[in-house]
């Protein structure tokens, strides 16, 4: 069985085209969102699908306690290693339904445009209720989502991208594919990521197949209402508080308040 790219935290971020300064800009914007919508400075926050929690590490250096959850033991191990001495704790949990032995948080965030991997209605509601259970009333949950155009409906598995990523002396040959999806599903796409990683002493191949739900501001608002624990209070485009959502270029941030 082929490994997952999530086995390699540093390679994973470069393969997903993270640019220098992206994490810092995203974290700074979340702090602005919390300042606008939270009635108190955040003292404790939850990082959902945290990986090694690069956003959380920045927040922790500013004195905010951070609790991270992720399903990948490799990512969690990297986060614990990188955050020694910081007020951070990590738990291996499913993001769909979870609980943690922690005091309630003021805020939560789900970055890296990963929220749409929750594809079932039940999983989305379980997720929102699980997050709400970790938060104080009035707490603010920031959800980062990729802007979605029309759903892709290929009739067969089809390659749509090929590129090469260089990370020091490591070369990664990346291919991406789209898979067919049923017309009646809520999916936007089924995305396959294949990485051939050329280490100095070996070659390894990783493969991840990721269903993506078609998630738009109105559907997130509806999910929040259906959960009974959140209300959607804002949607921001491209890390801007003034750009209209209709002019969103690449990604948007949904802002939910615990009721």
Tell me what the structure shows.
The structure is a single chain. The protein is α/β, with parallel strands linked by helices. It folds into 2 domains: 189 residues, Rossmann fold; 55 residues, S-adenosyl-L-methionine-dependent methyltransferases, CATH 2.20.130. It is 25% helix and 36% strand. It has 6 helices and 11 strands. A 7-stranded mixed beta sheet has the order 3-2-1-4-5-11-10, sandwiched between helices. Strands 6-7-8-9 form a 4-stranded antiparallel beta sheet, covered by helices on one side. Strand 7 and strand 8 form a beta hairpin. The longest helix has 16 residues. The mean pLDDT is 95.
Keywords:
about 260 residues, alpha/beta, Rossmann fold, S-adenosyl-L-methionine-dependent methyltransferases, 2 domains, 7-stranded mixed sheet, 4-stranded antiparallel sheet, 11 strands, about 25% helix, globular
Radius of gyration, taken over Cα atoms and rounded to an integer in Å: 18 Å
Average pLDDT taken over every residue: 95
Number of helices: 6
The total of beta strands comes to 11
In short:
By secondary structure, the protein is an alpha/beta fold. The protein has six helices and eleven strands. The chain has two domains: 5-148 and 214-258, Rossmann fold, CATH 3.40.50; 158-212, S-adenosyl-L-methionine-dependent methyltransferases (Single Sheet), CATH 2.20.130.10.
